[in-house]
Fold this protein.
Amino acid sequence: MKKRNLVLILVMMIILISSCSQATTDNATKGPITVATMIDSEGAILGNMLLLLMEDSGFEVENKIGFGTPDILRKALESNEVDLVVDYTGSGQYYGAVAAAAVWSDPQLGYEAVQTFDKETNNIEWLTPAPANNTEMLAVTKSFSEENDIRTMEDFAEYVTNGGEVKLICSASFSDNPMGLLGYQNAYGFQLTSDQMIVLSHGNTAEMLKALYDGSDGVNVSLVYGTDGSLQEMDMLVLKDSKNVPPVYLPAPVLRGEVAELYPELRDLFTDTFESLDLETLQSLNARVAFGGEDAKIVAEEYLKEKGLLD
């Protein structure tokens, strides 16, 4: 009788220990996952969305939003210094992915090219991107557009060819790029001279847009990125590029493969959020931070809750 009781006690203890162990496993903190972004309003907004969604799913997260420039961010990801970043599909051509120019100008083909390359070469996974092209484009003020009937790159080319007054402000990397200004000139048949341009060593479009807005040094055309937050607030018009000259840059979460294998739920955690972010939405969100001075985390949280993506 005593032996039977002893066996029963031992069985119950085993069950209890097993249950406690399972509970500990189920409640264990997942992570930590280090999230990093570039230094801009869009990086801050999208990075905070990633942080909020992961924390809501029980992940411990290390915040490195505003980590650095694109090259610094990429090196940190490749060296396992960070786990999850926000990057842009068109950048794949600079990371080593080889494809024809037409591939990078196609949203789906460009995504597939960098996705395949990084997975096979670096064990880095590109997750679902947002349908918002943050590529290099040219913008004018709406008043300039209306006065000169310029809404497209075809219109702009005709204006230049007919001797219209032009002062373009842009970055050196854009002015010398066959898929930037050189590509635009070849595709649309116009030519700008050096005295029609102000070329900066950096790509800070906030400074360029301010020059356009103020008309500094006669600037009436500026390099912009498609989702720049100041475009709506500053009453700017982006010239339509019907020939898709520059590469398409869709923002996407990019995750180290080892982390994706350890936590496979991360592959789908951000899908609904990024699919909801079209060009106008990102412009509006960026404007609240870059132009309105709102806190990026609050903007991100309000958006996620409004869309039913966060409790």
